[in-house]
Write a structure and sequence with these properties.
The structure holds 2 protein chains of 2 kinds. Chain A is mainly alpha-helical. Chain A contains 3 helices and no strands. Classes of the chains: A mainly alpha, B alpha/beta.
């Protein structure tokens, strides 16, 4: 497990702490890891490149 | 579907990148072009002099409708930003067909609920197919992507796209 030190804007930190207080996460660290996991799941290199290649096909051969 | 019938909703990416290339006018080739104010604000932060007057079909949506429960769940799951959420809400509420975005997660959500999504590269190639750009202009814009825009592309992928586009006889 890596240790990553980050600077977080106050507003984000406040929102994160509210989620912890509400019981969504045990710690702020757990919330950060979950947010990162969700972000990365939707922004993988493979997904982006697949979409770009589909775009190339549409751009060159689409009917609209 | 004819281009004149297409209602497209803009996310910030194509607005920013086509302006970086000086070809914002490629977005005129849709019946309606809808942009949530949130998206426009994001684009203006990157491109303060964005020449919106070039877009004759542009409608700015100041108050996007709320997301449907299905879209909200997907948007939360993929941690979409406010602008991407607003664009999806407008797309859904206004009966749009296309989400124009370079964000993989926003595009994944749009696809999951049945919309078409296209990005800056697709728009450049489409403009050539629809005779808005010559082949030489299209290829030059593709070559300019890493030089003049903030759209990040792996060099090998861009080279492959250039080879495919150059081989086309449209």
């Amino acid at each position: 497990m890596k240790t990553v030190t980050i600077q977080c804007p106050d507003q984000l930190d406040e929102q994160l702490r509210k989620l912890v207080l509400a019981g969504w996460f045990k710690t702020p660290e757990e919330g950060v890891v979950e947010a990162l996991r969700r972000y990365l799941s939707g922004h993988s290199v493979e997904l982006q490149e697949k979409q770009i290649l589909e775009d190339v096909e549409w751009g060159l051969h689409g009917r609209d | 579907m004819a281009a004149t019938e297409i209602v497209a909703v803009l996310d910030a990416g194509p607005l920013i990148h086509l302006d970086e290339l000086g070809r914002l006018n490629l977005l005129n080739d849709f019946k309606e072009l809808l942009v949530p104010q949130t998206v426009l604000d994001e684009a203006l932060r990157h491109r303060p002099a964005l020449p919106l007057a070039e877009l004759s079909n542009l409608e700015i949506i100041s108050e996007p409708p709320p997301l449907s429960a299905e879209l909200l769940k997907l948007a939360d799951e993929l941690a979409l930003h406010a602008g991407e959420r607003a664009a999806l809400a407008v797309l859904n509420a206004r009966g749009g067909q296309f989400l124009l975005s370079d964000d993989a997660a926003a595009r994944a959500v749009a696809l999951a609920v049945g919309f078409q999504t296209h990005g800056t590269i697709g728009l450049i190639l489409r403009a050539h197919r629809r005779r808005k750009l010559s082949k030489v202009e299209m290829l030059q814009l593709l070559r300019d992507l890493p030089l003049r825009t903030t759209l990040h592309l792996r060099k090998e992928l861009l080279d492959s796209i250039l080879a495919t586009a150059a081989a086309e006889n449209i």
